[in-house]
Structure formats: structure tokens, C-alpha cells
Amino acid sequence: MVLRRENLAAPTGSQPITIEIDTPAALTWTSRGIVPHLTRDHVAQSTSAGWVHVPFESFLERTPPVPTLQHQQDPTDPKPLHTFLGLPPETHIMSLSLRDPNNARELPPNGDKSISAWCVRGVRKVSPSSFLQYAFACRPDVVVAPADTPYTAPPFSQRRIHKNVERSAAWLAEVLKSISSSKASAEKIPILLPLAGLTVPKARGAFSYLIREALTGREAVELIPLGFKCLDDGVWGYLMELGPLRPSYLPLPIVAPTPLADEIKPTSYENEEEIVSGIVDLLQNSLKTLPVSKPRIAITTQSPHEVLRLVSEVGIDLFDVSSWSSDCARKGIGFDFTFPAPKKAEESSSNTVVGTPTTRPDGKVDVGHNFFASTYAHDFGRIAANFLDGEMGKGEIHQVCPCIACSPKSTEVEDASFDPPHTRAYIHHLLQTHEMSAYALLESHNAAVVASFFAGIRRTLSTTAEGSSSKGEPNIDLFSKEVSNFISYYALPYSLLDEATHDWDSVEKSRGKGSLKRARDADAITEGKESDLEASIALGGSQTLGELVDRVKLDAPAVLLLDPAPNVDVDTDVI
Amino acid sequence: MQFEILAKCKTTRARVSRMTLAHGPTMLPTFMPVATQAAIKGLTAQQMDSLGITLILNNTYHLNLRPGIKVLQEAGGAHKFQGWKKNLLTDSGGFQLVSLSKFTKITEEGALFASPFTGEPTMLTPEESISIQHSIGADIIMQLDDVVPSLLTGPRVSEAMERSVRWLDRCIAYHQKSGQDKTQNLFAIVQGGLDLTLRGRCLEEMVKRKDDVGGFAVGGLSGGEAKDTFWRVVEYCAERLPDDKPRYCMGVGFAEDLLVCVALGIDMADCVFPTRTARFGVALTFDGPLNIRLAKHHKDLNPIDPDCPCPTCKSGMSKALLHHLVTEETVAAHAVTQHNIVFQARVMSGARDAILNDTFPEYLHTFFARYFKGAGYPRWCVEALRSVGVDILEGVENPRIVDDNGAKWEYAEP
């Protein structure tokens, strides 16, 4: 499958832009407009698919929102949001939504005319039309129609689901009206429609029916002259938010508490397969009456296993996988999996120097490594056993991981050769010392592994029975076989993520935000004992030194803190 | 180590030199960014290389704690461990023993402290410090010195100075016996507090050992002393240090301090300031520091400095976007860190070019006029530069002079 975007929303007379994205693929999610942890020079080196999604809500902190000023400053710039965020329009398709479904936290209910959005200054009520005005100023390539997704825990009442369907359809009509009646061609932005109906199969089916139904009443009067027979005529593609479809879906309170180890509960994934089956069923209900020719995008997938089922059973084209890929990077997990899963023969021939991920008691293999674990302290291998590094070059079985950790390269000299890969021991050290470079390396690596995973899916789908690649019908048989191989070979990522979260939390507590205060508090408690300790050192040792060790481990208070601590964990170095 | 002086300023004591170490050449004067725990915070070794940096600093105390010497030895040294191909300098760990541990006791044998691993009382001797630095494998290593707070006065200061000389001898002996002196270069650290008599005695002793060391550092400064005292100590030391060895002033990182030090004959300096201040959202520019967190930057769509070649400015990343990200996303910290490292490098390469072109006094003139525009010239800079024959006030009508000790800072408008 090839997704082609030709000159979307480009002003008349400008050079046509064609960006082809082979699907199924992963899109790149952004947080506050940027790829987490990666600077622009790193993003430019990335080989991941050129679709970037930007949730707008963080920009609501200022009125008018700052990205809209870019258009004011230079009205001739056809792609002001691309310019603002530093992503070339020639290589990146940019979609824009009001809310960030990955940043789910409990919000006040939406109204008939307004959506509750969240930014660090609090909740903002935004009407569909004002969001559209922002979108017109930003000129993304695709805009996500505002959806009436409730940010409260399920189950949802029948009344709520009814509202969800009604409002989503009414807001779509409003959006269609503004976009289609707009005179400026740059404002004719393709629309992605979030499919409503929440967790009720019938309601999902009803929403799809509603948008395919011939227009009537006021909507007919307003929209038929603009060329629409039904609402769906104005829809370019469909968006599916998976978060609210999970029974475990629990939006965070508006003010998120600081995570502490005793609050972290192990994720339950006993019936994960059933849950995904439920999601598949819901999505199928939405899609069965909708045209297959339009792109389908799924937001908040939680494992490669889920992705594979959504590809084969729902036909999803584009995936947001950031909720596991970025979260894993932040928790110190480096991915090490491939699609198709390795065959037994490949395993034995693989490089024995680089260890493979942990095998769980049920015989399944982890999709990555928890580099917080002390077993990696002396491990000088590259991150992933399933990939080669840039310095080694191409291999017969394994692919090269092009990320900044496995294929590091200085841009100072053009055509510089690759440096040796950053090692597991180094990443372990960076994580243990709370150094932010670890997150950049792992974010880039995980995105590269995900990109390769999707490339594997596409390769398998286009492989004919004889083994050669063809552009014909997807090879469903082979693909299904490889999907079940993958699912029986790899463990779901939850145990790994739980373990990593636990380790991450202990380092966070001793060296992250607030650690200096905790150390000072600990100091205050032991204050009375300090003179004894000092005396004992002078005397050459004593048993009470154990307490001193704990204190030293907590890092002594830094001197020369010029500013109050910011919210990012950047405040904990010592000189 | 090769040390070759390429040009000397005809007015001041500034010079341009090329220092060639085991991992390539570094042009001096230079500023060394600090990678305390084997990483410039948030960046990769390749990013540092791409910025054109050729010499960075690691802290021995921190590396000894984590990952530990055993891991570094297994990795084949700190260069390989962190993927850094250019030059590296490590300190002796003595400064952190004093700044980070209340429990350190200095004896003639070494520094006694509680081991963070076992809690056992542990002795860091000069020999041990050098041995650790041998395992780390930095191109420049520092002697263990007896560090006292900069503001301390009394007999402890002279004791510390004299002990630093005795410890230097032990460091030299150990270093030479190990055979590592072929690839690693030991620097002596001049101590003596703020007392020029003590500094003089220290210099006299240490310069006698000049054939046994790769270079000299001026230590014990940047600890809260008055700027007027600071520059006089630097001036006194730099003048008496041998011409044919690099001179390193420890803990200096403000642009104005760097340029005064260069004019006084200093070749190298290090400080966490540019990288730390970046993480708090302060971008350094030739017009003074910009506090990106201030609301006044929130809709400024221009980069920090349109003339700056750093990846942040070159990509057009606006102050408005940085303001939106700062303290919320680590990317803001990384982006401003890249910028600030390049700013420091530009200040120093500008100085080198000016010295080579024999225009260093003009460079100082232009830099100070622009950097302190509106804020006034710090008196100590004026006086320090006058001592080496440059009057940065020359030709300036009604110059405003301030007696501030601190660096220039950007505040919210009232």
C-alpha cells in the first residue's frame, strides 16, 4: 500500500509536493511540538516515516497561540507550522489535532460548542470554529476534526455515548462548512475524522452510518451546494483513538502526582488478547460501512502485538506507537525485536557477543532490554542483538540499525565514517547517573526499530509465494503465519516495562527532580548524628558509616544553583 | 605533547598556540566544556564533535563513583566508553572531595573520606589519584592538590599550598614510574589562596619542576572571591608561569572572565556555567545572556542569534519555540546547550583570530562595548585589561562603569 500526498493544501502556483509513505507505517508523535529528547540535528538524521503529528493544545497557554504568529509574521509562508517547528515541508507531512490523546488526564466535560483542552496553565475551552481558525493559521497538511472524546473513566453512560456521536457529527459538519466555503486554497485542508461511538459497537456503527447518510435539513441546505452528498464526502481519512477503548483506561487527574515506587502497580495484561479482540471488534464495527480507500490511523497502540492484529484484522495504515516507544525509551528500554520474528536457525548464527533480550518463564522473549539492570554494567555490546551497527556495515541476516546510538556519526566532516556504536554499558551508566543523553539515544533507537518493524510488515505483505517481491495483492497467508510466529515468539512488553519503571523510579527518586530536597530532609534527620560520624571517620571507621553511605548515594546538595529548579529533570548535577 | 606558540599579541600577554595531544590538536586559547559524568548533559559525543569541540573535561571523582574504574578499564578507557575521539582532561578528584563531602580529612598522606561504595574510610593519595586518572586515560591529567575554600585565610592556606607542592612531587614520581607520561600529560596546580606572597612561593617551587609537567593550572579561584582579587591573582600567576607550557585557569566560564584571562596570558579554562545555565533556559550571546524563560521572549520568532552557526540557530529554532519548551521538554535544554557551547567557542576563536591578526585589543574593545551595552563596563575588567595595556574605555563617550562582581544577567522588565 502506498499513501500518496500530492500538493495537499499547497497554495496555487507553488511547486507540487509529493511525499510517498509506504504503509503500514508509524507516524512520529510530538510533545509540545517536538520529538521528545531529540534536537533538530538528530531529527534530521532520522530515517523514520515522514508523517509528524502535532497536538495543538500545549500552545493554548498563550493567546493568540504562538504558532499562529508565524503566519502573521510572514503570510506568504505556505507552511508556517512546518517553519515554526523546523520540519521541511518537502519531507514531512504534518497533521494537527486539538487534543493530545496520549496526554490523557481527567478534564471537565465538553459542551455542545466547546471542547476542554489541557495546557500547563490549566484547562482551556475551545470551540471547533476557533480551533479551525488556529489550523488555518498553521496550515498543516491534514487536520483532525475536533472529537467529543470524554476524558473520564469508562464505562460511559448511554447518554454520554449518544452525545459523543451527535456532537462529533455536528462538529464535523461545522468543520466541513468552514473549510469548504473558505476562499483561500491554503485553507482547504484535508480532514481526518475521529470515529465516534466509544465502547459500544452499535454506537460506532451508527456513527459511521450517520456520516454516510444523505444530508438532510439545515446541513443539506448548507453543504449540498458545496458539493457534499454526505458528511463522509468531506473526510479524507479516519482516526481511531484506542485509549478510551481499553477497560483499564483511567485518565490522570488534572494535576498528576509525582510517581513514586509504592504507587506503581504492575500492569495487568492477563487478558490482553481479549482486550485487543474487543478493540478489533469495535473498530470493525466503525469501518464496515466506510469506504476502504480512505487512510486509517490508529492512536495510542500499546504493543507491537496489538499493531500486528490491527494491521491484519482492521487494516490500519498508520500507527501512533509513541505511547510505548517513547515511554520505553524514557524508562531505559532499548528495543531489540524484528518482524518477522527470528527463526531458530538465525538465532544460532547471530552474533554471540551481543546478548539477546531476556526469555520469560513462558519461553517468550522480551522485545527489548531494560538497561537499568545491573547485568548491563559490563556489557560492551551494541544495543540490539537483532541489528548490526553502522561500523560493521551490512550483514546477510541482520539489518543495520541507523539510529544515533548504533550508527553514530559526526557531521563535522562530510561523509565521515561511522563511529563505534554506543554500548549497553554506557547507556546503563547514563541511566544510573540520570544523564539525559540516555533518553536521546534510546528514543532514536526505539524509533528506528519500530520503523524497521513496519518495513518488515510491508515486506512480508508484498512477498509472493515464490519469495520475490511484488506490487500485487498482499500476501495474507504468509503475513498471518508471521503474525502468529511473532506473537508466540515475543512476550508482551508489560513485564519489561514494569521492571524498567521500578528501576527508573528508584534512580528518579535519588537523582531526579526533588532529590536535592529529599537529600536535605534526610540531612536534617541525621543532623544530630553527624558529629559522631565525623569523629568515627577520624578514628578510622565504625558501623554507623552505613547511614553515611546512603547519604552520599543521594548526592550531596549542589552548590551554585543559580536558578530555582525547573520542571525538567535537569537540575541535579553537582560540581 | 607538542606545544607550539603561533602568535603573541603585541599589546597584551595573550598568545595563540597549538597543543597536540594523543587525540589530536587543540588550538589555544580554548574553553573546555564539562562532561562531568562522561556526557555533556543531553548531548552525544558525535554532537560535540560536530560542534567542532576538540577538548572536553571529565570529573575523576564522579567517574570513579560511576561507572567505576573497573568498567572504564574494561571499556579501554574513558574515550572509548563515551565514544569521544578528541582530547580529554580529567581533574584529580580533590576539589569534589572538598565540595561534595563534609567528611573529608586531609592528612599528609592524602585525603581521607568515607567511600561511597562501602562506607569504609578511604584514602585518596596523590599516587592513587594519578593511578585512577591513568585508568580513565585522559590526555591531560591533574595533580592531586590540597584544596581549601578560596576565601579562607590563615595558616591553613599556606599549609595547603606547601602540601600541594609536596603532592606534586609524588604525582610526578608516580606518573613517570608508570610510563604513562608518554601519552598522558600531568599538569601542576598553583595554589596559595588570594595571598600573592603564597602564590609567589608556590610558583617558585612548581616552576622548578617545569620539565616534569605538561602544563600549569591556576587553582583555588572562582570560589566567591572579589573579581578584583581574582584577576590580580591570575595576572600574578600567568606572568610568572613559563612561556613554553600551557596555562589553565580552573573554573572560569563567563565570557568577560575568559577574555580577561586570555589577555593576561591564560590558554585554557573550564566551567559548568555555559552548559548548566543552558538547562535553565539562559542563552549566551554577544549582546549578553538571554533568559529565554522570561515572558518577553514568548513571541519572538527569531533565533537566539541569527549569525550563530550552531545547529539550534542555523535551523531557525525561534526564541518563541524555545520559550514554549524550556523547563518542559529536555530538547530545550539540549538546544540551548549546543548554542552555548558554540558561543563559548566563538568567543575564543574570535580571540585567536584577533591575536593572529594582531587586532586583539580591538576585539576586546568591540566585545565589551557590545556585551555590556546598557549594563555598564565592570570596573574590574577595565582595570585588569589596563594592566596589560588595553583601555576598553578608549574613545567611549561617558562610559558607565559598574562595581558589580557578578556576571551580566537578563531580568524581567519591571
Automatic annotation (TrEMBL), chain A:
Domain of life: Eukaryota
Pfam family, one: TGT
GO BP terms, alphabetized: tRNA modification
Domain tRNA-guanine(15) transglycosylase-like residues, every copy: 279-461
Protein name: tRNA-guanine(15) transglycosylase-like domain-containing protein
Organism listed in the record: Schizopora paradoxa
TrEMBL record, chain B:
Keyword Zinc: yes
Region of interest (RNA binding), residue spans: 251-257, 275-279
Single GO MF descriptor: metal ion binding
InterPro entries documented for this protein: TGT (IPR004803), TGT-like_sf (IPR036511), tRNA_ribo_trans-like (IPR002616)
Active site: D91 (proton acceptor), D270 (nucleophile)
A GO BP entry: tRNA modification
UniProtKB keywords: Cytoplasm, Glycosyltransferase, Metal-binding, Transferase, tRNA processing, Zinc
Cofactor(s), names only, from the UniProt record: Zn(2+)
Binding positions (Zn(2+)): C308, C310, C313, H339
Binding positions (substrate): D91, S92, G93, G94, F95, D145, Q191, G220
Subcellular location: Cytoplasm
Domain of life, source organism: Eukaryota
EC class name: transferase
EC number(s) given by UniProt: 2.4.2.64
PANTHER family with a match to the protein in the record: QUEUINE TRNA-RIBOSYLTRANSFERASE CATALYTIC SUBUNIT 1
Assembly and interaction partners: Heterodimer of a catalytic subunit and an accessory subunit.
Job description of the protein: Catalytic subunit of the queuine tRNA-ribosyltransferase (TGT) that catalyzes the base-exchange of a guanine (G) residue with queuine (Q) at position 34 (anticodon wobble position) in tRNAs with GU(N) anticodons (tRNA-Asp, -Asn, -His and -Tyr), resulting in the hypermodified nucleoside queuosine (7-(((4,5-cis-dihydroxy-2-cyclopenten-1-yl)amino)methyl)-7-deazaguanosine). Catalysis occurs through a double-displacement mechanism. The nucleophile active site attacks the C1' of nucleotide 34 to detach the guanine base from the RNA, forming a covalent enzyme-RNA intermediate.
Family listed: Belongs to the queuine tRNA-ribosyltransferase family.
Record-given protein name: Queuine tRNA-ribosyltransferase catalytic subunit 1
Natural source organism: Schizopora paradoxa
